[in-house]
């Protein structure tokens, strides 16, 4: 919900069923984000959509790049550098 500065004090700016999108709405310091129950007819529609289109992706853990000891070594200042 977004503040209006008048009566009513808030207006609905967006609605989403996507958790990460809802989390992104919290980045604004003025907007108010709340979880609310989804009406049953809408819930059934979303469930049918997910059942038809969901593709399971395997979890792949990313590995960090190994740090190079040479890159981390203290460098001696050269005479050319200022």
Strands, helices and their partners?
Blueprint: E1 2-3, E2 10-11, H1 19-24, H2 40-53, H3 69-72
Antiparallel strand pairs: 1-2
Describe the structure.
The mean pLDDT is 86. The chain has helices at 19-24, 40-53, 69-72; strands spanning 2-3, 10-11. Helices cover 29% and strands 5% of the residues. The chain is mostly helical and 82 residues long.
A few lines on this structure:
This protein is mainly alpha-helical. Helices cover 29% and strands 5% of the residues. It contains 3 helices and 2 strands.
- Average predicted confidence as pLDDT: 86
Number of strands: 2
Counting helices, strands and paired strands, the structural category is: mainly alpha
Proportion of strand residues: under 5%
Taking the alpha carbons of the first and last residues, their distance comes to 53 Å
The largest sheet has its strands arranged as 1-2
Element order: H for helix, E for strand: EEHHH
Question: Mind telling me the C-alpha Rg?
Answer: 25 Å
Gross morphology: flat
In DSSP terms, counting alpha (H) and pi (I) runs of 4 or more, how many helices? 3
Describe the main β-sheet briefly. Answer: 2 strands, antiparallel
Low-confidence stretches: none
Q: Give the proportion of residues in helices.
A: 25-40%
């Amino acid at each position: 919900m977004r503040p209006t500065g008048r009566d009513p004090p808030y207006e609905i700016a967006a609605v989403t069923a996507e958790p990460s999108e809802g989390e992104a709405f919290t980045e604004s310091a003025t907007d108010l984000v709340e979880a609310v129950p989804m009406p049953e007819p809408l819930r059934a529609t979303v469930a049918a959509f997910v059942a038809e289109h969901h593709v399971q992706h395997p979890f792949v853990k990313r590995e960090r790049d190994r740090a190079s000891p040479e890159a981390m070594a203290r460098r001696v200042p050269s005479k050319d550098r200022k």
